[in-house]
Amino acid sequence: MKSIVSLLFAAVFVVTPISQAQAKNTPCSGKMGGVSHCSKDGKFVCNNGKISQSKKTCR
After folding, report:
1. Cys bridge to 44: 5, 27, 31, 48, which one at CB 3.0-4.6 A?
2. Surface-to-core class of residue 46, CB atoms within 10 Å of its CB (0-12 exposed, 13-18 middle, 19+ buried)
3. Over the stretch 9-57, which tens digit does the pLDDT of each residue have?
């Protein structure tokens, strides 16, 4: 039983940094709250109302 629990903890520590790295590469991540919608000029509008500084465009 202890080996299963320690295996689960190890899996969490391995997966967590990957998901954090992916979050840093998405528009409006972190304190911005995610993407709300796209502006007319193809920029990401975040849930906090700010325009993302991402160089990616949306439709």
Report:
1. 27
2. buried
3. 565 555 544 444 444 567 888 888 889 999 999 999 999 999 998 888 8
